Amino acid sequence: MTLFKDISKVRTISTIVFCGVFFGLIRSYFVGHLHGDQYPYSTFLFEPGDRFKDLFNMITITSKNNPYLTTDPFPSNYFPIGNSFFYLFSLLGNKMLIAGCFLGLFLILYFWLLARYLQNFFSRYFLEVLIIFFFSYPMFFNVDRLNIELYNFLLCFLWMYFRDKGKPLPAGLFLALSISMKLYTGVFIILYLKEKKYKEAFFILLFCGVLSVLSMLSFDGGFLVNLQAMLAGFKSFNYRYVESGYGFHHNHSMFIAFKLLYVLAIKFSTGGYLNLKPEAINSLLPFYSILTFVLFGLIVFYVLRKNLPAWMNIFLLTSAILLFPHVSFDYKLIFVYLPLLYFLKEKRIFTNDLLYAAGFGLLLIPHNYIYFFHDVSISTFIYPAVIMLMVTFILIKTRNVQH
Questions:
Q1: How far is residue 46's CA from residue 191's CA, in Å, rounded to a whole number?
Q2: 86-135: pLDDT as tens digits
Q3: Cis peptide before 40 (omega within 30 of 0)
Q4: Alpha carbon of residue 378 to chain centroid
Q5: Beta 371-373 vs 376-377: how paired, if at all?
């Protein structure tokens, strides 16, 4: 019976992923041809002329180990350890060599880790695993951008692997590296609080601070000057992608969905798009902050107080990573793999497994069926809707589960 359920889950997800991505490729070819092979109709990814630029731009910015005080028009908006990570790759010199090493190292480590983590499941469902974990929209999008999220996800995967092996030291180190790189993976600290491993949580956060300070001290100009420049960069990013009318494309943040809904409502009522002003967006931010605070509090309550399957705990926390930030570009969808790995390994049988499997499948395929303007598509609504439906379903179905 368990084997049958394994087959049903993995086949459901792999079928959705294969059909969804294949349809996206075919659709992009034909629809793109009708529009003269113009972006965005010719691809479900980002602009072809901007390929690999998430890596190449950061290599240029960090090549002199001066990411915040660089003469580049767009200084870094990464935390210090992320800049140091790019700086190490910049030492290779040639950008195409850097791109090859960046992607090649990830794929080798990723494949090895998948095989070690899934073990017999990996060999039994080899083709399905390849489709799900290599042929998906988040993977294609990350490879197209060569974004640092590839390695941030890998660090979280390593944290999961060593944590499940009962090796707290390497697990904690990898999670600390991830949090130092992107603050939002700090939500996984909640699992340590659930297990009353307060010392481990403290030392993970302490190591994050030490890593960040040491990395910052290595930059030219001194600690305080770089700290001020980093905060200024964050403010600039916030203005460009949150407060302005930019940042809608390839985004699954709940905030961006609300902002897009607001813009479309204005268009429907007036016949023209609203030129969003920062003042209008800023007036919405307090309400959004309250909403996310309440929703995150509910998620934390369920994770801490309910005896849920591991995949549900990880999914609920991952949903916060994907939905609640003001900006969540689609390369972050790769974090869906974290709860999915637990879901596939789950031995217990639940009546709604195939429904959850369908939800996971929908999060791994492109949904650019309709464009509202330029490269802003209906996917901005679909991804957060699927995530919220899955979260709501989990909360309702487990509301009577005891601690």
A1: 35
A2: 999 999 989 999 999 999 999 999 999 999 999 888 889 999 999 999 99
A3: yes
A4: 19
A5: antiparallel
3-class DSSP state of 377: strand
Enumerate the β-bridge partners of residue 329. 251
Residue 193 near residue 201, CB atoms below 8 Å? yes
Q: Which residues of the chain have pLDDT under 70?
A: 1-7, 35-36, 245, 270-280, 401-403
378 with 29: CB under 8 angstroms? no
69: β partners: none
Q: Distance (Å, rounded) from C-alpha 197 to C-alpha 5?
A: 34
Q: Which residues contact 204 (CB under 8 A, 6 or more apart)?
A: 172, 175, 176, 179, 189, 192
d(CA 327, CA 251): 7
- What average pLDDT does the chain have? 89
Distance in angstroms (rounded) separating the CA atoms of residues 323 and 318 = 9
CA-to-CA separations, 124 to 23, 25, 306, 354, in angstroms, rounded: 27, 28, 33, 19
CB atoms within 10 A of CB 89: 19
Say what the pTM is. 0.93
Tell me the C-alpha distance between 316 and 388, whole Å. 10
Give the pLDDT of residue 5: 53
Spatial distance between the Cα atoms of 144 and 386, rounded to a whole number of angstroms: 24
Residue type, 288: Y
pLDDT of residue 40: 87
